[in-house]
């Protein structure tokens, strides 16, 4: 990192008014063991003097509405399931400064997100229990970065973006958020418990040395692919389907050059809100997503046409409602327990969550930088390209060094791109 971040002040920000003191039971999705981690992200803004002070004041107001974020995760005395104790203890909030101009560091921040731009550990707090931490770092140029570290147990990407938009509205002078949050975990289906059989010996998943890179796809490139698919198949495809197909195939071709995988898998999360009956209320902000699992023989995928791979993904999406109903009924394997390993690629779609709309009063973000989850999981996050560009920015952490060049070259050929960024 070519600049220094100094944390100036840190404090627990509590709701500005009294809030309900209760134990909030979480939904069947919220309680998934795989969600017991924090999602970290950096939100980069070019303008905003005294942003830390203004956002800190707005945070206390926002927590009146989003009071579970000020609580702590705890275990139920009965069944040991995780839940939220709405204690009002607060969100750990840090103000910091950086001794440089933001524009001089923006590319390095994206390629190697700096831990100093994320909030440090809250003193005296159990990191597994505190739900949200934030840091606002002010740069010499007047720009600032909001670093967010929040528990996946309480909200998905849509819910977190809803919270940040509410926080920004209050910072901008509104007296209340335009969307009132609704906490109704009981609205999410609660399937019958599945029997869990642990094999006699389960080897730990390997730690992978995954390399990070960004790849930009312009809107004309995406539209050209969609037009080609329509001409070749007689049916339309979405931008996501086109991008997912080329990423999965490009990665598989690269990986298969050095190792043989009988089956390769693609996993992405679909918004399950439209599937819930009765419909969820406007303002619902907890987790509500469902895994879409796609698998294919590695050799077939490597040699298939792009049209064939898109069709495979479309077929998996077409099974979404039926698979969700099976999960509701407790039938089949648990879809929330995918096979981990180098043969599985995870995709996460961030470009339509609402992060790009957050405006604290000085304009929307120049960039939203996801901090990758783990070196155990080959993953790619699909985000919006930084304005004024219109298109997609892919944040990839999905291949080891020996496969990186081939993966980028395969993507370049698939999309007729120039050199992919390092």
UniProtKB/TrEMBL annotation:
Record bears the keyword Metal-binding: no
Q: Which InterPro entries match?
A: CAT-like_dom_sf, Plant_acyltransferase
Alphabetically, the GO molecular function entries are:
acyltransferase activity
Keywords tagged on the record = Acyltransferase, Transferase
- Pfam families (alphabetical): Transferase
Give the family from UniProt.
Belongs to the plant acyltransferase family.
Q: PANTHER family, per this entry?
A: ACYL TRANSFERASE 4
This protein is called what? Uncharacterized protein
């Amino acid at each position: 990192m070519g600049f220094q971040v100094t944390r100036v002040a840190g404090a627990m920000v509590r709701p500005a008014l009294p809030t309900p003191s209760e134990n909030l039971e979480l939904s069947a999705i919220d309680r998934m063991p795989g969600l017991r981690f924090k999602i970290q992200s950096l939100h980069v803004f070019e303008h905003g003097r005294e942003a830390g002070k203004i956002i800190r004041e707005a945070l206390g107001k926002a927590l009146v509405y989003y009071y579970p974020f000020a609580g702590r995760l705890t275990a139920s005395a009965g069944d040991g399931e995780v839940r939220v104790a709405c204690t009002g203890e607060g969100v750990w909030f840090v103000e910091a400064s950086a001794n440089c101009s933001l524009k001089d560091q923006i590319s390095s921040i994206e390629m190697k997100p700096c831990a100093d731009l994320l909030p440090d550990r809250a003193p005296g707090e159990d990191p597994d229990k505190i739900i949200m931490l934030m840091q606002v770092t002010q740069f010499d140029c007047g720009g600032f970065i909001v670093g967010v570290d929040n528990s996946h147990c309480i909200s998905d990407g849509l819910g977190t973006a809803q919270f940040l938009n509410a926080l920004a509205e209050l910072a901008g002078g509104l007296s209340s958020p335009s969307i009132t949050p609704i906490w109704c975990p009981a609205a999410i289906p609660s399937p019958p418990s599945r029997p869990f059989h642990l094999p006699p010996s389960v080897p730990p998943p390997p730690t992978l040395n995954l390399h990070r890179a960004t790849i930009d796809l312009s809107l004309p490139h995406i539209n050209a692919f969609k037009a080609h698919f329509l001409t070749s198949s007689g049916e339309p495809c979405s931008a996501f389907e086109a991008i997912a197909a080329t990423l999965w195939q490009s990665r598989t071709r690269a990986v298969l050059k050095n190792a043989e995988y009988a089956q390769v898998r693609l996993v992405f999360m679909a918004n399950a809100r439209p599937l819930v009956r009765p419909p969820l209320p406007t303002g619902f902000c907890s987790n509500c997503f469902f895994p879409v699992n796609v698998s294919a023989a590695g050799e077939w995928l490597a040699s298939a046409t792009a049209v064939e791979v898109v069709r495979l993904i479309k077929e998996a999406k077409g099974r979404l409602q039926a698979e969700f109903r099976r999960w509701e009924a407790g039938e089949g394997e648990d879809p929330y327990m995918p096979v981990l390993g180098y043969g599985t690629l995870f995709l996460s779609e961030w470009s339509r969550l609402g992060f790009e709309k957050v405006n604290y009063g000085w304009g929307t973000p120049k960039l939203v930088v996801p901090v990758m989850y783990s070196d155990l999981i080959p993953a790619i996050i699909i985000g919006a390209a930084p304005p004024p560009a219109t298109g997609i920015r892919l944040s990839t952490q999905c291949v080891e060094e020996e496969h990186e060049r081939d993966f980028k070259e395969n993507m370049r050929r698939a999309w007729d791109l120039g050199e992919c960024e390092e």
